[in-house]
Amino acid sequence: MTRFSAWSVFRNGLKGQRDWDRQWRDPEPRHEYDIVIVGGGLHGLATAYYLAKNHGLKNIAVVEKGWLGGGNGGRNTTIVRSNYFMPGNRQFYEHSLELWEDLSHELNYNVMFSQRSHISLLHSPAAMDAAARRYNTMRLTGSDGEIWDLNTLKANVPHLNYSADARFPIIGAAVQKRAGTARHDAVAWGYARAADSLGVDILQNCEVTGTTREDGRITALETSRGTIRAKKVGFAVAGNTTRLWQMAGFSTLPIESHKLQAFVSEPLKPLLDQVVVFGVGGAHFYISQSDKGGMVFGGDIDWYKSYAQRGNLPIVQDVAECAVSILPCLGRVRLLRHWSGVMDMSMDGSPFICKTPLSNLYLNAGWNYGGFKASPASGWYFADLIANDRPHQHIEHFTLDRFDRGINIDERGAGPDPKLHG
What we know:
By secondary structure, the protein is an alpha/beta fold.
């Protein structure tokens, strides 16, 4: 693998950019691997990379039914933050943010991580108090956070709707300055390139169609490119988790698959240099501006269950109304495109990184809205679990049986709401 540097970019520019190597190999599947990770998204690629780098393991494959980044990895709004509150979540997402901060150097690939601040708008004194509690906890546990009054917010983000008769009147904001955005495709390419350089086989267009079980283990995966035997198997397939779960011979999971749409406007001149979010009165909205100038935004999931990577118009209307309510200047901006990712929604809004009833099968799922920002830590802790056959203390509650034990990881503080999921 050719290492990127200012000198290599300059030298190849003089040669017409003809001397770059392939970024990763396209190998034929081997008959057997020590570890097979099903899912070539950000979590699967990160897991394979950290298995090789942190644990020195070899003979690893990542199996992807399509192309790298063709699932949720390339279908999100690219927000990175660690403003979580619950024990376990707090440490997990802070570790993830720390990994993000050095990820371009770690992978020798520019993932375009921009720490432009994450600003959560607040609309009532009660919301200010709740945010102060959350952000005080963040500061006490080694992270950063600030509460801005209205004047400070106006000075930093002048284009918001500050009128007294606004649909959602603003009285302040909770701010994490180290948060921001990254380029989703670049993250996938960076992890793929780095994993490949450590000997990981990345098998694209290799769809899993079934499994072979013997004596409480998965011994082989049936794929569109033939049978692949495996000593250990990890599932990291987001909204398709329930499909793979059934192929492994199980019935149900505390997960539902829903569509989450994302939107991009036509390019604009620089308008918004932060990530701005709000959630109040049934509305849910987040927005930032891409390096190309498009306004990137999203909101609620499509509430009915689906495996489709396309959305429907009611959510388009809902999210557009949220956008105009908080940024009226977008009223005449044209929507360029929108798409949908398939979200694996757990019943308490928190993920699973755990062993399963099969002794050599490991699960990474249930990421809800948090999958992109969690990618580095998800891969780090999932690799640690697979390599050592025991969970790290930061993920010891990310288990499937927590619902049986009555241990919900309810980050929102509103209680699980499966009744709202269709």
